[in-house]
Write a structure and sequence with these properties.
The chain is of the alpha+beta class and 310 residues long.
Length: 310
């Protein structure tokens, strides 16, 4: 699918045909669409295909008059997925008067870009536009991280009374997501620093300020993800111990109840023997035995209660 955006006074608007100074966004494009775009903006077709590699790591390289940047963005999978959040690659290609992004999955680029606080969002300046794009990618990590923290908090509330591993396994799924986030953000940081050092984008002084903002936002996302990962790891260790302790409490309760119930059984066993026993001829023998058994069980229960075994 090909979507073409151009910046106006009202923000980004979709236009029918590509033109100079626009942003072309490809989502899971067909071979025909790739060929059409490659011919239109005069870039290597293999460069577009490489951007669709799901295992691609963040990098930046210059070829002739084009600059190719590979970034990784957070992506929310289906609710029943083994790992709820992963990262996917997105290719960013800057030509003379064109900006292009390509990915396998649909993303929220347009919405994130329009909410960018950096100002001066324009597709007619591809290099400045890509600064906004990299900032929105870093910001999207923070947004998804907030969703993860909210879900983890709900799991923690359920874990407090849990005796099963389901909630811990749920936390493990989100811990895997944070590993994906951390790895992607670290490589993104190296890639952005390379852009800054190598001056691959021929940035003007004002653009360099934007790049500093991008680096700061990416560093914040890295730090927040690292903190969330550490806290989640400690939480999992703590709640694993809580589950074990909850199980011990249940076992202690059941053992205490078993001991109390054995006491009447002992009395019944004695008076069930075919021998001479005290008060066996008394008219209220049954009531006396039941009362004695119940009293003994009550005393043992009181002792267990005092010791907080019940």
């Amino acid at each position: 699918m090909i979507t073409v955006y151009t910046s106006t006074d009202k923000g980004l608007e979709v236009v029918e045909q590509p033109k100079k100074g626009c942003w072309i966004h490809l989502v899971d494009p067909s071979v025909e669409e790739l060929q059409e775009v490659a011919l239109k903006i005069k870039v290597d077709l293999q460069m577009l295909k490489f951007s669709l590699d799901q295992e691609a790591i963040p990098r930046a390289e210059k070829a002739d008059s084009s600059l190719r940047i590979t970034a990784r963005i957070p992506y929310r999978q289906r609710s029943n997925a083994q790992i709820p959040y992963i990262t996917i690659p997105v290719g960013i290609i800057l030509a003379e008067d064109w900006g292009l992004t390509v990915s396998r999955q649909k993303s929220d680029f347009a919405k994130d870009l329009e909410n960018s606080p950096l100002g001066d969002l324009t597709t007619s300046n591809p290099r400045r536009f890509v600064m906004h794009l990299l900032w929105s990618i870093a910001n999207s990590y923070l947004r998804y991280l907030s969703e993860i923290n909210e879900t983890v908090e709900k799991l923690e509330n359920r874990l407090q009374q849990s005796l099963q591993n389901q909630e811990v396994l749920g936390l493990l799924r989100f811990q895997k997501s944070l590993v994906y986030f951390t790895t992607a953000l670290e490589t993104m940081h190296l890639m952005i620093e390379r852009l800054q050092r190598a001056e691959m984008m021929d940035l003007k002084p004002g653009d360099l300020d934007l790049l500093d903002d991008v680096i700061t936002e990416n560093q914040e996302a890295m730090k927040m993800t690292e903190i969330a990962g550490d806290m989640l790891g400690q939480t999992m260790d703590a709640y694993t111990s809580i589950i074990s302790n909850n199980l011990n409490v249940v076992m202690k309760f059941l053992t205490s109840i078993t001991v109390i119930l054995i006491i009447p059984q002992i009395f019944g066993t004695f008076y069930g023997m075919n021998v001479m026993l005290p008060a066996e001829d008394h008219p209220y023998a049954f009531v006396m035995i039941v009362g004695l058994a119940a009293g003994a069980a009550a005393v043992v229960g009181y002792i267990f209660r005092r010791k907080k075994w019940l």
